[in-house]
Specification:
The chain has six helices and seven strands. It has 145 residues and is an alpha/beta fold. It has a five-stranded parallel beta sheet, sandwiched between helices. Strands 3-4 form a two-stranded antiparallel sheet. α1 packs across α6. The longest helix is centred in the last third of the chain and has 13 residues. The N and C termini lie close together (10 Å).
Length: 145
């Protein structure tokens, strides 16, 4: 029974890794979709209910995620250098964020200001320049699969 949070900056690969874990049969929830967040925070009642489940992998980066850290067995921070993040968000088609100069500047600002905070709360940090299968293997290993 393992609850895992995958977090990181835009373009780090949260959705890509989560998709691979779902393909492997893991229960996953991407909080960037389906109204999990409003104004940059999780719906706390909905998240609390989700985290009563014994096995789930959640992805997202929101202001109030720290309120839930004690309910996750692991908090995995996905990272990549800023130039990699910028390249990824500018090319992706599944999320419109990161297409404007202002949004790209915002990502750079968050790498400097938010990522260090995420690093302090993480139980594992993974560099997402490695293959998606290796990242998913590392996360699967946290749950003993």
């Amino acid at each position: 029974m393992t609850r895992i949070l995958i977090t990181g900056m835009s373009g780090a690969g949260k959705t890509t890794v989560l998709d691979e874990l779902a393909r492997r049969g893991r229960q996953t929830v991407d909080t960037d979709f389906d109204n999990w967040t409003q104004d940059g925070i999780w719906n706390e009642a909905r998240m609390a209910d989700l985290l009563t489940q014994p096995d789930v992998i959640v992805s997202g980066t929101v202001e109030n995620q720290g309120l839930f850290y004690d309910r996750f067995h692991h908090v995995v921070l996905l990272t990549a250098p800023l130039d990699v993040l910028i390249d990824r968000v500018s090319r992706r088609t599944n999320n419109p964020y990161g297409k404007t100069p202002a949004q790209l500047a915002e990502i750079a600002h968050y790498v400097r200001t938010v990522e260090p905070l995420l690093r302090r709360g993480a139980t594992l940090e993974l560099d997402t320049r490695q293959p998606v299968s290796a990242l998913a293997d590392a996360i699967d290993n946290l749950s003993g699969i």
